[in-house]
Design brief:
Distance between the termini: 42 Å
Structural class: mainly alpha
Oligomer: single chain
Order of helices and strands: HEEHH
Shape: elongated
Largest sheet: 2 strands, antiparallel
Strand order of the largest sheet: 1-2
Helix content: 55-70%
């Protein structure tokens, strides 16, 4: 477990940023149609399909992207990681919070 512990800050930091980008630009790996109970690789043009749910596709993209980022961050030397991660772990979520409130202002 101690070998995986340094990957968690990288994963969680990247997850929020990638999820917000996927949500803003509507980049979903797949789309779920609850009325039909079907999954599709892209949005379909069907009047009976009902509204699509992109949420699961955004989560999947964020999961894969942040896992890749965490594995790439594993090769960063420990001396650099000890200086960089404490700052990023606090700064990035704060920035993501402000950006998400800004992007969702149309619903409030």
């Amino acid at each position: 477990m101690t070998r995986l512990a340094p990957l968690f800050p990288a994963f969680s930091t990247a997850f929020g940023a990638i999820y917000l980008a996927c949500m803003h630009f509507n980049i979903a790996a797949f789309v779920y149609y609850p009325v039909l109970g079907e999954w599709h690789a892209a949005r379909i043009e069907n009047a009976d399909a009902g509204p699509p749910m992109f949420y699961y596709g955004w989560l999947f993209n964020a999961l894969i992207g942040s896992a890749v980022f965490a594995l790439a961050a594993a090769v960063i030397p420990q001396s650099v990681a000890r200086k960089v991660w404490p700052t990023l772990v606090w700064a990035v979520p704060g920035i993501m919070l402000v950006l998400s409130v800004y992007l969702m202002r149309i619903w409030f």
